Amino acid sequence: MTTYDDRASLTDLTAVAERVRSSVEGVIEGKPEVVRLSLTVLLAEGHLLIEDVPGVGKTMLAKALARSIDCSVQRIQFTPDLLPSDITGVSIWDQQRRDFEFKPGAIFAQIVIGDEINRASPKTQSALLESMEERQVTIDGQTYELPSPFMVVATQNPVEMEGTYPLPEAQRDRFMARVSIGYPSAEAELQMLDVHGGVNPLDDLQPVAHAHDIVKLIDAVRTVHVADPVRRYAVDLVAATRTHPDLRLGASPRATLHLLRAAKASAALSGRDYALPDDVQALAVAVLAHRLLPTAQAQLNRRTAEQVVLEILQHTAIPAAPQQQSGLTMGRGAPTFGQQPPRRL
Q: 316, 291 in Cβ contact below 8 A?
């Protein structure tokens, strides 16, 4: 296994990401954009919500990503009788020591897979709030730090509503992105029958990256430059969700931060040390849509949050096309933004 020093570069990042991507795509056929988004969220220090109908590979994607990285993994099967202490841990009285001893729960892992997260009660779901935002757990007045990297990959079924609890808005807002895998193409499904028909491809999946490497690559993503026009563009997109007539709840400031972090990770995966408006555009639906609440009238008109975000993208002016001679320099080797009129999608 290749290791890297503390000066991990974007070249290192793309090499490791390519290995992880190839490993996951060996299990999830025909969905390269979904795999790329999963890697983007991982390197942006976010959490991923996989929402789709049963049988399309939601849990398989989460497991494939976890097994491709040599790190600690825990899987939580969310059920109505699951308790918060089952997730965070509990203090148990030790007779020999005559003191309480903390027994960590499943959340103390680097990648936590939450299967059917909407089947747990709101009380249990709230146990994830502190860990997802602050990367720590507080129990009996004692705070415990979570390992790094730390990522929650949760799945839920949006069709079967019996026996489920809608995710609280505070928790949905903590997921950096939501992705739907969708049905595979006919060719990909035929290939799946060949690959999955006799054996489970997860059994032969070996780690292709170390958790220590992922931490260094996350540090490399933090150094990606975002110019002021790109920052303003992200702020304008988020602000437009707060005044749109079809939405009764727009995106939060946390959504703006997540959008910028994801754009930086996407730029790094493309081998750039600077983010472009295209990075923000490509991630806007995945990062923003699950946080928005359509109005009752919009729901009657069958208007979805995804459609609203796409409309906002169409009507929000983006920074001018890059120029090489004049304008604002974005970063090392980056193009500059001139004074051209805004271009449309």
A: no
Number of H helices, E strands in the chain: 14, 16
Closest CA to 85 of 63, 107, 100, 61: 107
Q: What is the largest CA-CA distance in the chain?
A: 74
CB 342 within 8 A of CB 321: no
Please name every residue paired with 50 in a beta bridge, in sequence order, or none if there are none: 155, 179
Query: What gap in Å lies between CA 341 and CA 336, rounded to an integer?
Result: 14
Q: How many residues comprise the chain?
A: 345
User: pLDDT digit string (tens) for 15-28?
Assistant: 888 999 999 988 88
Q: What token pair was written down for 250?
A: 């727009």
Alpha-carbon gap, residue 307 to 3, rounded angstroms: 43
For 115-149, the pLDDT digits (tens) are 999 999 888 988 899 999 999 998 888 899 999 99
Tokens of 53: 């109908």
pTM (2 d.p.): 0.86
